[in-house]
Specification:
The protein is α+β, with helices and mostly antiparallel strands. The chain has four helices and 14 strands. It has helices spanning 14-19, 64-78, 128-135, 171-179, and strands spanning 4-10, 34-39, 45-54, 57-63, 84-87, 93-95, 104-105, 114-116, 185-193, 200-204, 207-216, 219-225, 233-235, 238-241.
Length: 244
């Protein structure tokens, strides 16, 4: 997975440091990988990643496009904490089926299989976009952008947020969306007839409904206004339908 970078967080305060920043409970590392995100104070997405337990360290498996900015942001929060943040040359691998010894089950969804960080080869034949679309699993830089909110992006369903762990950056906004409002927008899997470029606007009866993203085998991930979405929507030359 050459599109991923692995950062290493070491030092005596590494667990408490990350616990006060990320959306999920770092204590879950005792059971394997932890899926989490770093947010702005306003609750908007900065980066999502997998935390990986390692000897005397916590690894962060993140999109290469986000790795540098994530490391800079973590360094900004470091202050006097006994923490060191550095890039590694580890290349993650992933595969389908039963999790082999030394690898970790992907915590987002069983269909995503396993990931490993020990130099082994992964499965290069799987259609990962088809898996993501079928289970509405967003990807950094595609469905997940600086305008994304975790709950609209499905992070609760994907085991990426913990509402009992206490404070973290952006926690107040995320908790308010969980407990005080009904989601009116969000990612969903839709059916598609035809094709349209990623990022194409979706309309229905001339009104904006959302945006079309990754497509595979007649389905796609879309960001929708649920009150306007339904059958016979248009995205460029493609017809988009949502059953709700």
């Amino acid at each position: 997975m050459t599109d991923r970078t692995v950062l290493k967080v070491s030092g005596a305060d590494r667990e408490s440091f990350l616990q006060g920043l990320v959306s999920n409970d770092v204590k879950g590392l005792k059971d394997g990988l932890v899926y989490a995100a770093l947010l702005t104070p306003q609750g908007k997405y900065l980066a999502d990643f997998l935390l990986v337990p390692a000897e005397d360290a916590i690894l962060i498996d993140v999109s290469t496009n986000l790795a540098r900015s994530l490391a800079q942001r973590l360094t900004m929060y470091k202050l006097r904490a006994d923490v060191s943040i550095e890039a590694t040359d580890i290349v993650p691998a992933r595969g389908l089926g039963e999790t082999p010894e030394g690898a970790f089950a992907d915590p987002r969804h069983a269909a995503l299989g396993w990931r490993a960080y020990d130099g082994r080869n992964g499965d290069t034949s799987a259609d990962w976009d088809a898996i993501r679309v079928a289970h509405c699993i967003p990807e950094s830089g595609v469905e997940l952008t600086g305008d994304s909110y975790l709950l609209e992006a499905g992070f609760e369903r994907l085991n990426g947020v913990d509402f009992r762990k206490g404070c973290y950056v952006g926690q107040e906004v995320t908790a308010r969306m969980k407990h005080k409002t009904e989601l009116k927008k969000g990612l969903a899997t839709v059916s598609v007839e035809g094709e349209a470029p990623v990022g194409t606007d979706i309309t229905r009866d001339g009104k904006p409904v959302g945006t079309l993203f990754t497509q595979s085998s007649g389905q796609a991930i879309a960001y929708l206004r649920f009150d306007r979405a339904g059958p016979d929507m248009q995205a460029g030359d493609a017809v988009v339908s949502w059953k709700g």
